[in-house]
Amino acid sequence: MKDFASSYLKKHQLQTPEISEPPSGNIGFIVVIPVLCEPDIIQTLESIWKCTRPSCDTEVLMIVNASEKAPDNIVECNCNTTIASLEWIRQHQDDSLKFFVLNVTLPDKDAGVGLARKIGMDAAIRRFNETGRSRGFILSFDADSICDPDYFSAIEETINLKPDTKGFTIYFEHPVSGINFPERIYQGIAQYELHLRYVNLYLAYSGFPYAFHTVGSCFGVRADIYAAQGGMNKRKGGEDFYFLHKIVPLGNFEVINSTRVIPSPRDSFRVPFGTGPVIHKYMETGLELTTYDPEAFRLLRQFLSLFPRFYKSESSVIRNLTGHLDKSIREFLEIMHFTEAIEEINSNSGSPDTFRNRFFRWFDAFRIIKFLNYSAINHFPKQPVTKAVTVLLNDLNVKVPERRSPPELLHVLRRIERGS
Fold it and tell me: What is the dihedral of CA 65, 68, 72, 77, to 10 degrees?
């Protein structure tokens, strides 16, 4: 369907450098990689190059970006990255897998990974729109990540098996040993990934239907869905979380566990929160990472088990149902004006399915994180991550390893999430 995204592009598209070469009529995947001073970008490009080619054609858009007020060393680093990338591209020619470098200068107030990712994704939408490939996929990647050789073929297999797929996340593993980083970084990243998987598994245990990882280097979205949902945001951090939680509730959202993305464990201040800042803090302190208390998830599970009974119930019934919950939940629901919200949801719901959809669009991932933070501050302080994971495994009826080091516990959670 040609011009499927024209209205989106007129309304939302940011100015990006033009790609003089027209897109292939068989283009199906476009990989978008924000790049900011990445001296090791070639290993990322090599990783993608070594992938088995899918049946469709693929493009890789590198968005080499910096703030208009970036210091000279960043500008010079980006220049070197561009030169090295263009030389690498010259030596790696394949009509079915093409690489392009787009250099952009970002306004200082919005400069960050969110805006860079948005510029790249909007450029991808323009390419899909030119060819009418509305069901092509934008693949989000990072400049310090690598992937397994079956990256494209695993994605294609999922789409072929489930042709209504609107988006997906891809299984990931940070390196937790090696010689490329100091040992303390490997210690820190094992704990941080443990936290990520712990939260995701406990969210699923609680009954939240949209428990998915939101890692910037590990997701994809169909072109027409991207345009229909207003595209990527410009947040300087957490852009992936906010974007994906617009896409996930639409349904037909998949988890691809048959391949793997390997994000970098490095420390960084490029984003206000996430892997880089967490590892940087760990490098400074060496203190064990903490996470939300298991009790908060158990209480969340109690609350979510009640939601079907809220459908078409009087306010007095709703208050009676929630009145038996723990103080931490009751306080939070009062702050969120819960009873009034349920009344509004009920007034616009003609069936239990509609109510369910509306309920979880209101009590979404953002509110759940707010509850977990409220609970941690006011009722259940955060716990050492290894201690919390041991409780999770007991709740999931999974045998806890005799030795409980972060890498050993992480191995167990990885196997659970990968379905093995």
Answer: 0
Q: Average model confidence (pLDDT) for the chain?
A: 93
What amino acid is encoded at 181 in this protein?
F
pLDDT at 270: 56
| Phi-psi label, residue 238: left if phi above 0, alpha if psi -120 to 50, beta otherwise | left
pLDDT tens column, 220-273 = 999 999 999 999 998 877 889 999 999 999 999 999 999 999 999 876 655 555
Answer yes or no: pTM beyond 0.90: yes
Cross-strand partners of 59: 30, 98
CA distance 64 to 174: 24
How far apart CA 50 and CA 261 sit, in angstroms, is 14
Q: How far apart are CA 420 and CA 409, in angstroms?
A: 15
Please enumerate in sequence order all residues whose Cβ is within 8 A of that of 256, keeping only pairs 6 or more positions apart, or say none.
154, 155, 158, 168, 169, 170, 171
pLDDT at 1 over 70: no
Name the E strands within 163-262. 167-172, 219-222, 253-262
**CA separation for the pair 362, 355 (Å, rounded):** 11
Provide the 10 A C-beta neighbour count for residue 16: 17
pLDDT in tens, 317-328: 999 999 999 999
Contact in structure between 66 and 78 (CB atoms under 8 Å): yes
Structure tokens at 273: 């929160």
Measured CA to CA, the distance from residue 420 to residue 413 in angstroms comes to 10
| Integer Cα distance of 221 and 219 in angstroms | 7
Report which residue type is found at 284: E
